Amino acid sequence: MSQIAINTSQNVNINFNIASVGERMLAFIIDLLIKVAYVLIVFYLFFNVFDLGYLLAGLDQWSVMAVYIVLTFPVYIYPVVLESLMEGQTPGKKLMKIRVVKIDGYQASFGDYLIRWMFRLIDTSAAGVIGLISMIVSKNNQRLGDIASGTAVISLKNNINISHTILENINEDYIPSFPQVIALSDNDMRIIKDNYTKALRVDDRQIISKLSDKIKSILKLDIDSKKMTERQFINVVIKDYNYYTGKDS
């Protein structure tokens, strides 16, 4: 499975798996079934439950078409609205555990989702062949809408164990040292632990030092290096965060 390196706002590169063409097609089919179900329900309510079909009698073809467009309007804006509200996902994408992200690391905006939606007219033309060909030949399985908006669809299905998460084993009698860690987010802690683990693996003291300095700066801490080394400090910060947020395993 191909990967893409995305630079976060903390200037850290994180590798994500690119969603496969099959995953994207299945997500599309799920969303399509949801839209079809919506149309069937709306038409059933309009013609059978509320018996409003008589309103169309005597209307010209264009007026009837306008009524149908109004009734089915949510179907047309389904992708752009839900991706905006669900941070790059639709129900189909959520079920398939895939998401739209910006390649440059910034959060995708409504404008990005709108561009993807506008290009959907081209991508889905010729029975979707154009979009399919674009995903197959492009580097990051991007359809034309992705290329135009600078986005890609990543897979959230990662093989994760405790060493890859913010979870840390702590004893029941553990006593925390830095209550300031509650100012950090789960995402901050994931980045800290991921980079710290990688630095330890290759004994990169420069990264460990920079990471330690960055944490101290964010939390406004002044630690005596004689009492606690940089490695000890980062270890304590990780354990303290788990202690205060209840994320001990």
Blueprint of the fold:
Blueprint: E1 3-7, E2 13-18, H1 21-49, H2 61-85, H3 91-96, E3 98-102, H4 110-123, H5 129-137, H6 144-149, E4 151-155, H7 186-202, H8 205-219, H9 230-245
Antiparallel strand pairs: 1-2, 2-4, 3-4
List its salient traits.
alpha+beta; 2 domains; four-stranded antiparallel beta sheet; 4 strands; elongated; transmembrane; membrane
Counted by DSSP, the helix tally is: 9
Mean pLDDT: 86
Query: What's the domain count?
Result: 2
Which value, in Å, is the CA radius of gyration?
Answer: 25 Å
**Poorly predicted parts:** 159-164
DSSP strand count: 4
Strand order of the largest sheet: 1-2-4-3
Shape: elongated
Strand content: 5-15%
Largest sheet data: 4 strands, antiparallel
- Based on helices, strands and strand pairing, what is the structural class? alpha+beta
Word description of this protein:
A hairpin with a 5-residue loop joins strand 1 and strand 2. This protein has 2 domains: 3-155, no CATH class; 181-246, no CATH class. The longest helix is centred in the N-terminal third of the chain and has 29 residues, at 21-49. Helices cover 55% and strands 8% of the residues. The model is unreliable at 159-164 (pLDDT under 50). It contains 9 helices and 4 strands. With 249 residues, it is α+β, with helices and mostly antiparallel strands. The protein has helices at 21-49, 61-85, 91-96, 110-123, 129-137, 144-149, 186-202, 205-219, 230-245; strands at 3-7, 13-18, 98-102, 151-155. Helix 2 (61-85) packs across helix 4. Strands 1-2-4-3 form a 4-stranded antiparallel β-sheet.
